[in-house]
Amino acid sequence: MKRIALLVLWFFTVGLMAQEAPNEVAEAVAAEAQAQAQASKESKAAPGIDLNAEYEQVQADIETTSKRVDELEASWEKTQSEMSRDLLQQQAVADTLTMTQRVDAFLGHVEASTVPEERQLGVDVVRAENRFFQSRLELASSGLRKLFEQYEQADGEKQLLILLNIDDFYSYINWLLMERQKNLELLQGWKLDTAKEQRKLNREVTRYAEFMAIYLRTSTRQKELLQREIKTLPAESRSAFEGKVATQDRLVRSAVSNLKEVLVLMEQQGLPVEEYNELIFKTTGNLAEAVVSIGAMRTVLSGLWDDSLNWLKTNLGGILSRLVLFAALMGVAVFISRLVRRGIERAVTHRKAHFSTLVQDFFITVGGNLVVIIGLLFALAQVGLDLTPVLTGLGVAGIVIGFALQDTLSNFASGMMILIYRPFDVGDYVEAGGVAGKVGKMSLVNTTIRTFDNQVFMVPNAKIWGETIKNITSERIRRVDLVFGVAYTDNVEQVEQILEEIVTKHPSVLKTPEHVIRLHVLNESSVDFIVRPWVKTDDYWDVYWDITREVKVRFDQEGITIPFPQRELHVHTITPPPQLPDEPVSLQRSDTGLRAAGEGEDGTL
């Protein structure tokens, strides 16, 4: 890369070293001045301004600035401090800007005049400024070449400082080229023939763009080589190369940015830029980075199509062979997975294994899928895919998915706990998660329960594990708990005998453990007996219903009363009060108060 960059820079520098002939368009200037003298009246510049004196001053400023900048650039070459170099470069730019402002002010005064001699002064100043710009371009290209040499020899932080100086030189060179173009446009506005000068500037700009294109390709290639080298290194040795890759990427992006500025100038001059736009697109992968135009877009798309065809021609055989290899390896992985599943199934279903159905299904599924995943990773590695970023990406994605699927992971963890502690198995009747029924199947996330009325519920494992689990059929035998009440007037011994006969005669009642029949509670309206026979779990409901029916039938036959809640209503007759007299009683006022008519003083009638 270093040799290529030096060769291109030398080529670019030689192209800039050609000097302009100071009087190459003198005849054109004289002819233009004569035509203006005949076509218009003589007019003076702005009042109070002596253009001849100002011309001498501007020429002196150009010469002084040239010497000043030469001294600064000589100091720049001697110093080894990148910070000092940056300050010297900034000072040179500031001096140059001050000079151009002085020249622009003088040219503004010249444009206000129509006197041919005064216009000739402006032409001389413009050409002197262009000679200054060209000498600065030669020195800037030489300085840029030295910066690239120092960049190749520097390490780490020093490379970053040199990159900053390189960016400054990029901007400085672009500005000088643009100023030369502006001066040519000014001369064209004065009706001077600048075709030869324009062609020369176009060649210099094109050489500069070619140099930047070659340097961009070389820098991009070096960055790609560093990236490939990193992939072959162990993780602990990658940090140093990662820093180099970052610095090289910074250099590439800087070169792209500078080339884009050069292409803007080339478009203004009407020069072709499609090839360079295609290079920018290939380097960045972003069409918006290029100087967009219809022609540029057509060239980029055409180049992309051609590159795609060339890539297919070159790599089609390798792609097909890799696809065949990948398919073959995955087929082998699936075949081995089936064998593993069968082996695990035989192991977990052995009569001595004592694994539940849930655990058996879990081991069979996980074992087979694990073989397929390992086979997939192996196949990807064999076709040339680097698994390190893939596994890293999966780790990061796992963290993100873990936060997003906390409830699902909670169900997963609960499913693992259910598999480990085995509170129920497939086919058991349970009451869990607010649902009662038969366990149909279970995954690590949820459990399917079919209720007694044939409804299917998928209950999250976290809900099941977080609540009480009642397994109705986990044991081989169960006790049937029955309670029967009789009236207080019935004979206790007779009732016990009837219940004993009913229980002992039922074929599904087990002899061991022994059943229990006891008088249990003297209730408010009944005498309650408990009947507790032991049966097989599968016979539970049949025995429950058979004994209940048989007790009712025998009690009716034996005249045993089964009390039930009753309400008695007692009606009491109430004697009505005596009748009041039919005639109304009149009241008379006396000294002692109100009294009924006919009532004496003592209150008697």
Q: Would you spell out the secondary-structure blueprint of this structure?
A:
Elements: H1 2-16, H2 26-39, H3 51-78, H4 82-111, H5 116-153, H6 157-189, H7 195-231, H8 238-268, H9 274-284, H10 294-348, H11 357-382, H12 387-404, H13 406-421, E1 429-432, E2 435-442, E3 446-450, E4 456-460, H14 461-465, E5 470-471, E6 477-479, E7 482-486, H15 492-505, E8 516-522, E9 527-532, E10 534-536, H16 540-558, E11 587-590, E12 593-596
Helix pairs in contact: 1-5, 1-7, 2-5, 3-4, 3-5, 4-5, 4-6, 5-6, 6-7, 6-8, 7-8, 8-9, 9-10, 10-11, 15-16
Textual characterization of the structure:
With 605 residues, the protein is α+β, with helices and mostly antiparallel strands. It folds into four domains: 2-19 and 48-292; 311-404, Helix Hairpins (Orthogonal Bundle), CATH 1.10.287; 424-471, SH3 type barrels (Roll); 477-558, Alpha-Beta Plaits (2-Layer Sandwich), CATH 3.30.70.100. Helix content is 64%, strand content 9%. Strands 4-3-2-1-5 form a five-stranded antiparallel β-sheet. Strand 8 (516-522) and strand 9 form a beta hairpin. Helix 3 runs antiparallel to helix 4, helix 4 (82-111) packs antiparallel against helix 5 (116-153) and helix 5 runs antiparallel to helix 6 (157-189). Mean pLDDT is 78; it is low at 1-46. Residues 1-18 form the signal peptide. Residues 407-473 form the Mechanosensitive ion channel MscS domain. Residues 370-406 form the Mechanosensitive ion channel transmembrane helices 2/3 domain. Homoheptamer. It is found in: Cell inner membrane; Cell membrane.
N to C succession of SSEs: HHHHHHHHHHHHHEEEEHEEEHEEEHEE
Mean pLDDT: 78
Label the structural class: alpha+beta
**Number of domains in the coordinates?**
4
Main beta-sheet annotation: 5 strands, antiparallel
The whole-angstrom Rg is 54 Å
